[in-house]
Every structure is written in structure tokens, then in C-alpha cells.
Amino acid sequence: MAACWVHCSLLLLLLAFTPYSGTLKCHNGTIVKFGSGLTDQVFDWSTENTIEAEPNGICQETFLIVDVGPKSLLVGSKGSGLHNGWQENQVNNYAQRPGILAAMFTNFCEQSECNNATSDEVLVTHLRLPPSFDTSSIKCSVCLTDESFCPMNLVFCPKNTACYSSDITIKGGGVDKIFRVEGCLDATAQNIFKGEEKLGVFSVSEKRRPLTADSFSLLFAPGTSLAWVLGLGLFLTLYLTGFIISDEAISL
Ligand SMILES: *[C@@H]1O[C@H](CO)[C@@H](O)[C@H](O)[C@H]1NC(C)=O
Ligand SMILES: *[C@@H]1O[C@H](CO)[C@@H](O)[C@H](O)[C@H]1NC(C)=O
């Protein structure tokens, strides 16, 4: 009895003074980065900060890339998260090129500081990037921002895409932001994230906006563009003819 008391107390003392025994340490931090060509270049990002995993939590890192062509966005989070079926080193491609691209890397892992990627290479090398694509005669507004205002920027879209505009809210893992996303999206896709609302540690809600640029897609749609160009040509011809006639009339 006495022997056990001594042994057991010693054991308890040992356990009490072993730092973080049984708890996981995870790298912790967030990044929101706008750029151009983030789909073609690796962006270095890591954090020395660590935290203890939350109760029942494991370590996680989640990288999300959204690219609308001229502009890209990287949202990253490292910290603690709940397992919820997320795997180690998983890549999900959502929207694909041609058009808006959206993809995610998640690493939910159970060793201390295992969420240790030092760049978004883990995601960038797995993006599906077709080498080239044909342009259509549809024009759409292109924008990617966390501000409420989108500067006017119309571009000709790749073939088989349609104008897309939405507000995307990303919350969780230390991030809480609303992004305006506008561009050309695969015409068969209803949304960017295939209706998924849980992307790794992030909760995502995607709200389509009414398209102000839709008139442009109609205007430049293949069926009408020729008529429109012919109409403009006719107008210009008449205008120029009229101009020349009146010019002559004045000089007479
Ligand atoms: C990152 O974490 C994994 C899993 O714990 C480990 O195997 C690997 O050695 C770590 N890499 C670095 C650079 O620390
Ligand atoms: C990690 O750090 C961020 C700040 O960068 C913080 O907002 C977040 O709550 C922290 N904890 C976890 C578990 O991610």
C-alpha cells in the first residue's frame, strides 16, 4: 500500500510536470493574399507561432485559391480544427479553367506541428491548367476584391463560359471576410464551390449577384454579334456619307 502510494505520487508528479503531455501543438496563423498569377507561382508562407489544439481537435492547414484570370486570391489558415472526415494532404479542384478557377488544399493531421507546409506549392502543383483555350465573343466583368466596389473591367471570355458574379463569405480558422468574385465561369457550372459549404476549416457561403454585365453577353453573343457589327457598319457608312455630303454642301 505504502509502496504504491510513493510510486503513484511519483508517477502523478511526473505526468504533471511533463509539458503538453497529451495535447497537440499546431502551427497557427492566417493569410489573405491578392496577386496575379498565383496559380502559376508558388507563394512562400509559414508561421512560427504555435497553439495548443482545441479539445478533440487536431492540427490543420487549409489553403484556398480563387483565380479569375488577371487576379488571384490565396486564403490560408493554420491552427487547430476538428477531424470531420478531413484527410492529410488532400487537394480538391472545384471550378476549373478555362474560366474561374477554385481549388483547395487541406492537411488535417495528428502529430505535433504537422501542419508545417512552408508554401502553397502543395496546392499549386495540383491545379489543372489547360495550356490554351479559344476565346468567345462574350464579354464579362472581371473582378476579385474584398472591397465593396469593383472597377469596370470587361474581358472577352473563354469559349463555353458564362458571366458569373457573387459575394463569397469565408469564415473560420481566424478568417472572416467577404469577397466579390466576378468573371467567366464554366457555362455548365451553377457556382464555384459546387454547393459545398465546408471547405477544410472554412465555412463558405456563395451568393450569386444579379448580372449587370449580362447585357454585354447578349450583345456579344455569337448569334447577334454579326448583326450588331453589320448594324454599326451601316450606321457608320450612313454617318460618314452624311458627313461628307454635308461637308460638300457647306463648301458649295
Ligand atoms: C512536417 O510534419 C510531418 C508530419 O509530422 C513530418 O513527417 C515532417 O518531417 C515535417 N517536416 C518538417 C520540415 O518539419
Ligand atoms: C490562430 O491564429 C489566428 C490569428 O492569426 C486566430 O484568429 C485563430 O483563432 C488562432 N487559433 C486557431 C485554433 O486557429
Show the helix and strand layout.
Elements: H1 2-17, E1 25-27, E2 29-35, E3 50-52, E4 57-67, E5 72-82, E6 90-93, E7 101-109, H2 121-124, E8 135-141, E9 143-145, E10 154-158, E11 161-172, E12 175-186, E13 198-199, E14 202-208, H3 214-220, H4 222-251
The protein binds 2-acetamido-2-deoxy-beta-D-glucopyranose (NAG) (2 copies).
Protein architecture, described:
The chain has helices at residues 2-17, 121-124, 214-220, 222-251; strands at 25-27, 29-35, 50-52, 57-67, 72-82, 90-93, 101-109, 135-141, 143-145, 154-158, 161-172, 175-186, 198-199, 202-208. With 252 residues, the protein is of the alpha+beta class. It starts with a helix and ends with a helix. It has one domain (25-217). The model is unreliable at 10-21 and 218-252 (pLDDT under 50). The strands form four sheets. It has a five-stranded antiparallel β-sheet, with no helix packed on it. Strands 9-12-11-14-13 form a five-stranded antiparallel β-sheet, with no helix packed on it. One 2-acetamido-2-deoxy-beta-D-glucopyranose binds at residues 111, 114, 116.
Number of helices: 4
Domain unit count: 1
Major beta-sheet overview: 5 strands, antiparallel
Q: Give the helix level as a range of percent.
A: 10-25%
How many beta-strand segments?
14
Structural class: alpha+beta
Task: Report how far apart the termini are.
Answer: 128 Å
CA-atom Rg in angstroms: 27 Å
Mean residue pLDDT = 82
| Distinct ligand kinds | 2-acetamido-2-deoxy-beta-D-glucopyranose
Which residues sit in consecutive blocks of at least 5 with pLDDT less than 50?
A: 10-21, 218-252
- Please tell me what the overall shape is: elongated
Describe the strand arrangement of the main beta sheet, using strand numbers. Answer: 2-5-4-7-6
Order of helices and strands: HEEEEEEEHEEEEEEEHH
